[in-house]
Each structure stands twice: as C-alpha cells, then as structure tokens.
Specification:
The complex is a heterodimer of chains A (437) and B (244). Chain A has 437 residues and is of the alpha+beta class. Chain A has 13 helices and 11 strands. Chain A folds into 2 domains: 3-53 and 292-434, no CATH class; 61-285, no CATH class. Helix content of chain A is 50%, strand content 21%. In chain A, α2 runs antiparallel to α12 (400-417), α9 runs parallel beside α13 (419-427) and α11 (344-387) runs antiparallel to α13 (419-427). In chain B, a hairpin with a 2-residue loop joins β9 and β10 (241-242). Classes of the chains: A alpha+beta (437), B alpha/beta (244).
Amino acid sequence: MSWTASLTLALRSLGRRPGRTLLTVLAVALGTTLLVALGSVASTAGSRIVSKLNNGGPGTAIKVAPSQADSDQAYTDDLRATTPKPITEASVNTLRQSTSITAVVPVMAAPVLVVSPPFGAAAAAISSAPAFNNTMLGVDMRQANNLPITMLAGRLPGNASLDEIAVTETYLDHSGMSVSGVLGTLVEIAEPQAFQSQTGIQFRGRWIKATIVGVVSQQVGSGALLVPIEQTRLARQWALAGVDGGDAFPLPTSPYSGMIVLAASLDQLHTARQAVTELGYANSAAEHLVTSVLRYLRVVDIVLAGIGAIALGIAGLGVANALLAAVRERRREIGVLKAIGARDRDIARWFLLEAFGVGLAGGMLGTLSGLLIALWVGISVNDYLVQQGLQSIQVGDLSWPLLSVAIGGTSALAMAAGIVPALKAAQLAPREAMAAP
Amino acid sequence: MHLPGSDAAPSAHAVQGRVARLGSAIHVEGLNHWYRSGRASVQALHRISLDVPAGGYVALTGPSGAGKSTLLSLIGGLERPQQGGLRVGEHNLTGLRGDALAAYRRGTVGFVFQHFGLLDLLSARENIELAAALASPAPDHRRLALSLLNEVGLSARAEHRPGELSGGERQRVAIGRALVNDPSLILADEPTGNLDSESAMRVLDLLERIHSERGCTLVVVTHNEAVAERAERRHRLDDGRLLS
C-alpha cells in the first residue's frame, strides 16, 4: 500500500470518530501545553537570571579593593584585605591583558556632604536640615552596562556629564522622597578640601548642583550617589589641592578606590579571580553563589521537564488507548484489507500514521496554547515588576529548539504510543475478514 | 482521494469480450484443520479432498458450522493449512506464509464477502482504488476503478460511500473491487446472504458473467439452494466432512 493511500486511510479514520479524536488530540495538546508553558517560562526566567548574572550582574563581576589580599583570598568569595595597595593605571592595564577578563572598570570614590531639597529660605524653616555625609561613586558611564547596576527608575547620567547624577535608595531614605518623586529634583553636593589656617586644619567645600536623573541599585561600591567618573576626578583634584585632613578627610592615596573586573563568562570567573589575586589585590565575587544558583536552576529545569514528561506520558497512554479501541472496532476491516492483499506493515503503517496525525495536531495545538500561556505569564510578571518600580523582562521570545522538540517530540511520542496498537492490528489474522458482523 | 493505479493491470474494457482464459485449478487433498475454542481444539475440516478444474464454477453448501467458510478461507490464503495438501494453480499454499501469502491473495484471489467488506470511510471508487493500490504500485488506479465501476454498472454511484448505497449496489462495488487484480480465482462467501432476491439474482448474474468472460475459477459458499443450483458443480459439507 502506498504512503498516500495509508495517509488517506489514517486521516479518514480520524474523522470517523470525531469526538474520540478530538479528546485524544486535546489530551496530547494538554500535555504539550504544560511542557511548552513550563519550558518557556523556565527558559525565560533562567536565561534572564543567567543573563543578569553574566552581564553586569553579580555573577561575573569581581569587586577589587585597593588592598593587599591575604593568603586565603583564593578560597573564599569574601574580601580578604590586609594592608592598603593602590589601584593604579598600570594594574588596570595589566588585568585588561587577561583573556579571561572582558572589562576592567575603575571606580573613583569621593567623600561628600549631600544636601537634598528644600534649599535656601525654605530650608531655614525646617528644623533639621536634610544634609548628610556620604560617598559619591564615579564610573565610566560608557561601561555602565558591564557593571552591577540595576536601574530602578529613570536613567543613568549622561557620559561625562557634570550636572547629572543617579542616587540609590539610601538617598531616598535620607531625603524622604519616593522613587518617582525624586526624579528631576536637584541635589547640592559639597566636595571637601582641608586647608591649613592660622587656627589649624579647617575645611571648605567645592559646591555643585546636579539634577537627579535616575534611581539605581548598585554593587559598585559603598555610596549613595553615582556619577560620571569625570565628576569624582574633579573632586579628587580638589581634595589633593588641599592638605591632609586627618582621620576625617585624609588625602586620597590610591588613584582609584576600587575596580570592577568582569570575567569573560561564568566559566572564566575563577580564572579571572586568580589573575586579580595573583596581582595581589583583595577581591570578592559571588563565585560559589553563582555556581549554586546555576545548579538550582538546573534542578528547576529538571523538575519542570519531569512534570511535562508525566503529562505527555499520560497523553501517550490516551493515544494508545484510543488506538487500541480503534483496532477492536476495525478487526473486520483489517481482515478485509489483508484479504485483498495488504501486508502486516501496511496495516501497521495505517495505525502509526493515525497516531502521528493525533500527535502532530495535539503538538501544534499544545505548543500554540503553551506559548500563549507563557506570554500571559510574562506580561503578568512584567506588570508586577513595573508596579514595583523594577525593570521589566523581555517576553514573547520564541525558543525554536523548544518548539521543534515540542511538536516533533509529541508526534514521535504519539507514534511510540501507537506501536503496540499498530502491532496488534498488523498481527490480526486475515480470517477476521470472514467474521460475522 | 486519489489512489495511484496501475497501467500494467488490465482495464475492465480491455478484458471485456476477451476469450475466456483458464483460471486456477484447485487441488485439495486430505485437508485437516483445527481451530481453538477456549482451551479446546475443535476440528473444523476432516480429510477434505476436492478438485476444482481451472475455470470451474463450484458451489459449497451445507449448514452453519459445516466448515464451508473455513475451507474458503484456506483456499483464499486467509489461513495456512495445518495438515494435508492444498494447491491453487501453481501455488502450493501449504508452503506459503506472511508476505508470500499476502502476495498470493493480492495476485491471485478476488474475495466477495457476505458483509461486502467495504470501508465505510471511503467512497465506492476509493474502495476500489485502495484495492488497486495494494495490487500494484503503478499509478492510474483511478482510471481502473472507474472502469470497473462501469463494468458492474455503478459509474453513477462512484463517489457515494457504502452507507449511501443499497445492499445490492454495495455487493457490486465489492465485486468490482475483487476484480482489480484480474484474479484467476474468485471466492464468494455467501455473496447473496444479505440481499433481497432481486438484488441477489443481479449479483449472481454479474458474478457468472465475469466468470464466463474472464475465465476465472468461481467458488461460491452459500446456504441458498437456488444459488447453489446455478453452479456447474456442487459440494456439500457437514460437520467438517465433504459429503458429495
């Protein structure tokens, strides 16, 4: 019997019992829906987490302190600092030569006095002026994407801008402002300088005004203000133009207050840390944490795949059951086909194609509904993230491997489920053709 | 549906009017056959010996359970003989099994069943095309199917499904289907059993016309004495034994 004839028979047979066919297809579709929805959600969530860990997240970022590392530094994620060790341009350039490192971003911190609104006469009417000591962190804004910085609202300051600034939630705590309310407001900052007067060491400030353009969460360093490094470079020059202010404002010694070293990948993180440690710098990285997170993600994947597989297994049993019923119903038809010359494999092919048809239809339907569910979940998650003032995730990405595995795998599974019924049908005796109605 | 057909298979028009050629001779010798009923083994045929000449027309009669259908299914290759000899034409059926037996059925035998044996999900033409597709891998089965439907007088009903045809029409479609492989042996199991007398006579007329025009051997199993009387020879079975 030709493939065309077998396919025609299979399709017509499916149409003979539309109710049963529909239920079987729906069972397969349900299993596929579960598999695709779970797979898509897990894949999106997993890739998002891995992406955040990889790209500027804590995963591949190594925080380097201007200190000498102790002998145990290589064995712990934590910072093991001993004596000061300046971070110089030479150190930065040395690390940039390493193949396991993609970026080295120096950080320049400057101590500042921060004054939040209201200013002037309005401030005088308030008993406790909203001013506090803190640290301003300067980084090269062109490399901000490589840094462990998460935008909570607004945007980052423009590159080399001297009148734009981003703040952390620490600033909001001090100023009493909200995430949405702080954007566009001004902040006054005093960069201190110690000078020798006739009465001893005194301090004066280099005052600047900047517009708050963004709210961030960052792990670049300890500080409530994030600015372009050009701003902190000016503050450093201002401080160095003065004298040593003692414990309160000592003269900066290290050219940079720290640096963020980015490993080329999670796999290269350990090698990159070794390079930093061998250079003598104390450093910290979430090396073991990341490994654990990835392992847990893998476990989640396995569990979700297991749930989907169970659903598909049940669907497969449904296919097998429906086909076994069909074999029972068609005993005489099978016998007649054999009587007019059909071989065992012709009969088997008829039932296998029928199973394949159910699997293909169910797989396509289930994949479509699974993707819609995943899209709906993604949109719901995005709504929640936006409500929380967090960055939204990208939804609606199609994972072609997942789609092809879902449709192809479901069809193959249905065919596998059809093997036993197909063999039973093929092994029926041709004499069934003579059976009484 | 279009089921590929065979140019090699002779069309009905081509065989119409052809001088009768010799069908397959049947030679049965000492045939015993058993079937299982639960744990018991029941002997369905006892030392049956029978010869049907090539191109002969034979009726097998007898009461229910006499073994007529069993003998027919053995001659038609639906079952393998268990003991004794059975030859149809050049085929020694005792040595055939599996695909070889299927090839014998496909190439030599045309079956007509009491229940017609048509697939409800296919039209009259498609039923014949399917049989043609089994008989030959060559294309143009549609032309052959339409030609055979014309031969059995059902051209106008080609696209009707069995459920839309009368009993007599269904049996004529089944006869048309039995002819797709230009069989040298036609086996009819109670071909008129489900038909009214008028339809039964039309079906018998058709079978006999095909038998005479094509020269094929015709074996008819029947309860009906009137049907049996039309055969050239009659054999009666009872309790698995050939009485005459």
